[in-house]
Amino acid sequence: MYILKLIIVASFFLFACKEAPYETPNENIDDKTIETTDSTTVDNNTVTDSITDEGNTDTLQVDNFVLYIGTYTDGTSKGIYLSEFDNQTGKITTPKLLTTLINPSYQCITSDNKFLWTVSEDWGGPGKVINFSINPQNGELSQTASFLSKGNAPCYVAYHQSTNNALVANYNTGNVINIPVNASGKANGTIYSDQHTGSGPNTNRQNEPHAHFIKPDLDEKYVYSANLGTDKIYVYCLVNNELDRISEIEMLPGSGPRHIAFHPSRKAMAVISELNSTVTVFTPDNEGIFNILLETESTLPADYMNNNQCADIHFSPDGNYLYASNRGHNSIAVYKVDEETMKIELTELYTKDINWPRNFLITPNGEFLIVANQNSNSIEVLKRNIDTGKLTQTEFKQHISKPVCVTLYNLNK
Fold first, then answer.
1. Which terminus has fewer CB within 10 Å in the chain: N or C?
2. CATH architecture designation of domain 28-53+60-410
3. For 32, how many CA atoms within 13 A lie in the half-sphere containing its CB?
4. Domain spans of the chain, in order of start
5. What are the b/e assignments for 83-95, b being 16+ CB within 10 Å?
6. Average pLDDT, the chain
């Protein structure tokens, strides 16, 4: 009986000592000053290529991530690369080649965590979309299927999980497609294409339609496509495995909408426009379509007059901040989001070692922002202050030729 009591007490003690779950701070800090940050006190020459401490192979048991890196292959890169990433410290390993592919310039991972989809943005031939199954033990990729994109220069891919459709935007031909597949990632019907038409006032960039983005909203009720050439956002429903266009949203003439981000509260949608360097915020109508214009804000300081081309945009996981990338000014713009009105306020322009930031991501815990610097051939890991949104440099970076897309995968899911 005495031994039994000891076992019961020990079991209770172990249960009580379990680590409490991490909770993201939600404190709001008002900051009326726009900061341009370009330096921190770290050693820029320190680059790590191992995510585990010497003699300790268990550091990633809680959150074990790999980072897929898509590249342009007109330099020395050859396709999709993989690095290990520790989202507790920010350490990142040397990228290794996973698969050889022409210009895998954008990827996405299905929400069931089973597949990686990528485009092959081949400007010299027909575009392709490739589906890979992911080995959940190490992140290795095995090709499942390959599809023609029904257009030229596919530059964006997303996945509609509830209907098992891949969604693709073809830049050169200005059309978007959906690819029906089964649960195994194989073809399951006819590819459907919707052709955008029109042009914009910028004769160098908008002489014809250029679809640059297509993605469902967070509830997969509607699908949104941004067309840089026509200054429009196209809204769809997926009906019987076909994109059914139900609405069009007019953007400012010459703005060139490029990418879209959805606020985690479902209360706002933010559109980054490449050609006029702005972020435009929309709120939903009674049907849940984000077509009510709230405001448009610049991504640049007022005195900047040189070339700039915006690229990517993301909300922080808690929705308190919005981030946008500038190519030319070479910065990450940071906006505070008003949780009541959804209006945004520019609070910082981070510039240290940012060079043509085509794509970036924010880690799920909100602690880091990872940037693909196309022109400096580097992946930069920035530390993010969850309370203030402020970015600071870390010692962690890796060099790779022309990185243009970064995608995280959690091996523990």
1. N
2. 7 Propeller (2.130)
3. 0
4. 28-53+60-410
5. bbbbbbbbbbbeb
6. 88
